Amino acid sequence: MRILLVEDDEMIGRAACAALRAEHYAVDWVRDGEAAALALRAEAYDLVLLDLGLPRRDGLDVLRGLRAAGSAVPVLVATARDAVADRIAGLDAGADDYVVKPYDTDELLARIRALIRRSLGQAEPVYRHKGVSLNPATREASVDGRPVALSSREWAVLEPLLARPGVIYSRAQLESKLYGWKEDISSNAVEVYVHGLRKKLGSDLIQTVRGLGYVVPKT
């Protein structure tokens, strides 16, 4: 999954990036509101982690603009503004959840997982399909109850496919889950990871739709 981190504090931003990448999220980090608005117009994200007190453009204004444009991407506001009125303003502007700094990293990650599940229409915290199980909270995968070790890149490819059976993801869409802006993308990266997943999880779990991309069939 790909996350846009909007945070102007260098120390907090670095810590958040490290925590998110340790959980196998692809992360793009911007440090002001104008850069955030540009990134949101240019890229598709699975979640936005948004500070409010930003240079150049306030976070609430970024959020209102995002919702006015019709985007339903989950937004988790993370800010030092801890007054009740500030929390209400953030939620009324379109935020899906709100945490106050300094936040506990484990709680932050749990809230992110919950928001992503909700955006995918997934109530259960574990993805299950045809004997394959993925637990985003524990990063455990299994086939018919047998644990399977997945690399972070394999996980990044499999999670969106397994979370939405029947939805075709193009190679470009899957690449966006794998890499942030400054990371090099090999021309056959997705194919390599899909091949590895088929060997570990079964050749019929992920199917190629010629000319379109990849899908985990519903049935």
TrEMBL record:
Cross-referenced SMART domains: REC, Trans_reg_C
InterPro entries according to UniProt: CheY-like_superfamily (IPR011006), OmpR/PhoB-type_DNA-bd (IPR001867), Sig_transdc_resp-reg_receiver (IPR001789), WalR-like (IPR039420), WH-like_DNA-bd_sf (IPR036388)
List of residues that carry 4-aspartylphosphate: 51
Transmembrane segment boundaries: none
Any single GO CC term annotated in Swiss-Prot or TrEMBL for this entry: protein-DNA complex
Response regulatory domain boundaries: 2-116
Official protein name in the record: Response regulator transcription factor
Native source organism of the sequence: Ramlibacter rhizophilus
Source species taxonomy: Bacteria, Pseudomonadati, Pseudomonadota, Betaproteobacteria, Burkholderiales
